[in-house]
Amino acid sequence: MAVWMRIYPYFILIIFSLFVFGKVQAQPGIEPAEKAEAAKFEPKREFRGEWIATVVNIDWPSDVHLSVDKQKQELIAILDADQRVGINAVMLQVRPAADAFYAKSGEPWSRWLTGKQGLAPYPAYDPLEFAINEAHKRGMELHAWFNPYRATFDSNFKGLCQCHITNQEPSWFFTYGGIKLFNPGIPQVRDYIVKVILNVVDNYNIDGVHMDDYFYPYKIDGQKITDEQTFKAYAGDFTDIKDWRRNNVDLLIKTLADSIHKHKRYIKFGISPFGIWKNESQDADGSQTHGGDSYYELYADSRKWVKEGWVDYIAPQLYWNFGYHLAAFENLLDWWSDNTYGRHLYIGQAAYRINEPKSKAFRNPAELPNQIKYLRDNPRVQGSVFFSANSLMRNPLGFTDSLRTNYYRYPALPPPMLWLDSVPPNAPKNLLGKSAGNDVKLNWETPDTAKDKEPVYGYVVYRFDGTDTVNLTNPKYILHIQYDADTAYEDKTAQRGKTYLYVVTAIDRIKNESEPTPTIAVSTMDLAK
Known about the structure:
Elements (H helix, E strand, L loop, with lengths): L7 H4 L20 H7 L8 E6 L15 H18 L3 E7 L15 H4 L12 H11 L3 E6 L18 H4 L4 E4 L2 E4 L4 H17 L4 E4 L16 H7 L6 H23 L4 E4 L22 H4 L4 H6 L5 E2 L14 H9 L6 E6 L17 H10 L6 E5 L1 H6 L4 H9 L21 E8 L2 E7 L12 E8 L12 E5 L5 E4 L7 E9 L12 E4 L6
Parallel strand pairs: 1-2, 1-10, 2-3, 3-6, 6-7, 7-8, 8-9, 9-10
Antiparallel strand pairs: 4-5, 11-12, 12-15, 13-14, 13-16, 16-17
Helix pairs in contact: 3-5, 7-9
């Protein structure tokens, strides 16, 4: 395979699911006729994700010498731009190389945050906590993105902090391609990685745990994985080292799935594997492709993780164009949609390739928009994730504008994961509204406790013109999505001399939505001139 996809460590950091319960999730207060009409609209439920890569400062922060204030301003600028575009979830890379972009960590601060591994930001702040709060303010989920096995990014081992795990436990690692990688066959290594991730699960208000495609390393000519001694020590019943390696990865994924949901059942666990599981030439169950694969090359049985229900979503990196002779986008999307096993499927899309000089397909402004249309036509695909933030910020070939004005012009709620929680909240109570100055002020009361005792996580405010039919399936009527329990909202976009209809629903952490409040009408006739 002409694997530009293996853009080496510098640009192949990516991460990343599906919805077999129907193209339009049943919503409260919807009559059958309205359900049929919903097919005409953009989806009200869609995962619209973006990766924010921190390794080698790909997306954020732009430079290791930025002040804390500048770091914050840059991240706010990214999230503000995402909000304008319609992104509703970000995957923030918080552990690029056994280091940390968060304060509550046993691993050293990342050098891509402060310029030196182990050096804390000054004045002190917690980047992850800051990012979570800012994302939630904008109605976006934040998934903490971990690189589980990469311990260093280059061969400058002398530049590592003495506290770095490679110095503390040197026997846990092998060197491959000039970098140090955790040896997944050592049980203590798997325990350590689980502990690192659960620390974030326990101490931060994240919405998801996310992992990318870096498991065992991508093949490099002349390089060999030196884990024979580990195999001899821990092979158990395995006689084939390749099967044993795959099992090592499986053990980590299953343990993480069980542990994450035991600690906080609402946290979503997702992985973004390499786009090809197996080729059809290797296995009749494989895809109609002719490229590298995750199963044999990376020892990552990505389809198994979905089939066993170990992940809540899978986000394969389908960074190819329609009709690509080695790995056609449409073939892979169809294959993954046939192998979702009831979990969510989000498609990793290559925003970074738009206008790529050597690719006629990606110089076509219609390539990614057509990919969005194609995935939306498949009821077993629930959305996509773009790599990466800077690519969208640059607006290549006007693609970001087309998201904002067309494909993502109306808000969308992430699709709920009914296997985690299928019980919606109760409806908010006593919705009231009044015009005041140039605004319409809405107030309501917290709903009664839901049947599953889950607290309300947020609210959705809908607004209709006075002559509109109240239809909660059409996302154009969503005025505001909030991820907090405040029971008030100010509509500052009301126009003078009009009558509006408002309803409010409650959402829980998984984004199950309640029945709506009774509709209220508010006239702006008396707004100040």
